[in-house]
Amino acid sequence: xxxxxxxxxxxxxxxxxxxxxxxxxxxxxxxxxxxxxxxxxxxxxxxxxxxxxxxxxxxxxxxxxxxxxxxxxxxxxxxxxxxxxxxxxxxxxxxxxxxxxxxxxxxxxxxxxxxxxxxxxxxxxxxxxxxxxxxxxxxxxxxxxxxxxxxxxxxxxxxxxxxxxxxxxxxxxxxxxxxxxxxxxxxxxxxxxxxxxxxxxxxxxxxxxxxxxxxxxxxxxxxxxxxxxxxxxxxxxxxxxxxxxxxxxxxxxxxxxxxxxx
Amino acid sequence: xxxxxxxxxxxxxxxxxxxxxxxxxxxxxxxxxxxxxxxxxxxxxxxxxxxxxxxxxxxxxxxxxxxxxxxxxxxxxxxxxxxxxxxxxxxxxxxxxxxxxxxxxxxxxxxxxxxxxxxxxxxxxxxxxxxxxxxxxxxxxxxxxxxxxxxxxxxxxxxxxxxxxxxxxxxxxxxxxxxxxxxxxxxxxxxxxxxxxxxxxxxxxxxxxxxxxxxxxxxxxxxxxxxxxxxxxxxxxxxxxxxxxxxxxxxxxxxxxxxxxxxxxxxxxxxxxxxxxxxxxxxxxxxxxxxxxxxxxxxxxxxxxxxxxxxxxxxxxxxxxxxxxxxxxxxxxxxxxxxxxxxxxxxxxxxxxxx
Lengths: 262, 355
What we know:
With 262 residues, chain A is mainly alpha-helical. Chain A has helices spanning 3-29, 34-42, 44-77, 83-95, 98-109, 114-121, 130-155, 158-166, 171-182, 184-199, 203-208, 215-226, 228-261.
């Protein structure tokens, strides 16, 4: 088989997959009624749900930055017993059905269970509250951030950190002055991925907190109660807002990425 | 003084076994060995970056085997520079002083001193991505030296550089060592670096130190076939460059001067490979500039060659084939002529121009 024929087949198959992603999105966006979208977004219920979604995913990402970057660094640099088991555990949320994840979280953070009670003393409730949305999103999307940060740390030559130690820096100073700044691009990229994935979470969130309503749940509710026509504008808004933010951050990131590699 | 006492360490690809070494204060010590013998592992153990499984590391009277690297006052320079890519030249050099929270005025003083020593004043505000290999290695050296380390550890510091840059930096290393007197341990697979720089060398093979001594000792009395082969050349002469009617000569002693081609001056080492010397019964006219009468002081039969030791005022080793031995019927005590070209003499400067 000739090279060009093979290239053609590769291109065609790739095109099918891209079409599969883009066709529904474009179909939804093109030919939609702009006025309907503008009136929809002004509905209190709609913009509140969008705000809740973005905020909850942001909080989930920030918490994971604090807890996940130390873990990523340990996994990238440490050699200890059970490391590959931990790496497997980090990936579990990707493969568990998300409604099942929601149920599992419920058995810890439900008001009758120990996690729920513990945080209850601090005045933090999960079921049917903002915090419930946060932990639902966090559980299912944290692998994106942890894995990306881990790969980033792994890509840094360990001798850079060794030099830092010989120059008098403690392990903590070395982390903050060498490893962290050098891994910033991967961490930002991982955080954006995690945040984007968190936004779209439905399964785990719907179990933990139907209210306050996030945008994916609102789309679902309007679809089941009123049908396609009423759910479509919210879906469109959701897609457009995330696309704008996602593409914007991608551009910003790739600019920084180029600077780093010059 | 640095003392390594019975150091053992096994890693995935390397193993170093029973290392015993003593390095004197102010010494330039070169660890010489082929790639992959664990030289770098040894350096990282001295730096405290790796823990030995067995054995002790001593700095003077202090046992520091388990001491963290940041508490050891060492400078480390790697073959591929390892400059921090997110910092510019100045911030790279100042890294060690900043983590030690030195006063800014003191930082600036030391910076000025070290950049002029390494001749990198003009690079200070450059991004490290714009530097050549030689410039990067100077910055790496400045970064290591600015903290005034008690020991400087150099891991193949010249191996990634092109020949010209390498030679210049080699001279600078010599100059810097003379100036600062920092105890230096330099690891390399290239014995030319050892020739120029080393006070003493250790030869390492398969994770063991197989010989320690001055270069002359190692060259003249290699303890094993491996060492002899590794150091390559047998004939190393100490001498001084003299100019005679536009011709370069090396005066080895009062009786013997040899003609060479070289740009060096002052004290030099002259190396002549045993296979580059011709033995003959009669003197003969040729383009070769060096022809001397000498006495055979010894014959050694090796696997594929015969090693002939000839005394022409100094002893030179010459390799000949078994066939030549038969045809020339050489015997100990007989007189023969040695002939070699001026270009066969490999002249290495020792950096001491005053002599």
